[in-house]
Amino acid sequence: MTTGNFADWNGNMTDLGPLYPFVGWEVPMAIILLICWVVWHIWQARIENNLHDEYARHLRQDDNLHQAVMSEHTIERM
Q1: Which residue among 4, 6, 48, 51 is buried most deeply as judged by most CB within 10 Å?
Q2: Are residues 1 and 21 in contact, defined by beta-carbon separation less than 8 angstroms?
Q3: CB 1 within 8 A of CB 23
Q4: What gap in Å lies between CA 72 and CA 68, rounded to an integer?
């Protein structure tokens, strides 16, 4: 990585070379990021589905669903 010679501003811009690191890696890094993002969403959905199934299984046991519904407080009309 070079920033060129600042003493002479009349130089050719193509002689400077890359002005920041990892030049040319923008597209591969964006693809890797996209793949990681999709994998994270799939992983998160599986975890949430497993957690939901666990809660549902718990509510189906020993009439827990009926107790949970009956313990809910509703807003009464005035």
Answers
A1: 4
A2: yes
A3: no
A4: 7
Higher pLDDT, 51 or 7: 51
- What does the alpha-carbon distance between residue 20 and residue 3 come to, in Å, rounded to a whole number? 9
Q: How far apart are CA 47 and CA 2, in angstroms?
A: 47
Report the 10 Å Cβ neighbour count for 59.
15
Q: How far apart are CA 55 and CA 15, in angstroms?
A: 64
Read off the tokens for 13. 């811009």
Neighbours of 4 (CB within 10 A): 14
Query: What CA–CA distance (Å, rounded) separates 35 from 44?
Result: 14
Q: In one letter, which amino acid is 10?
A: N
Tell me the per-residue pLDDT of 17-64, one tens digit each, with 9 for 90 and over. Answer: 777 788 889 999 999 999 999 999 999 999 999 999 998 888 888 878
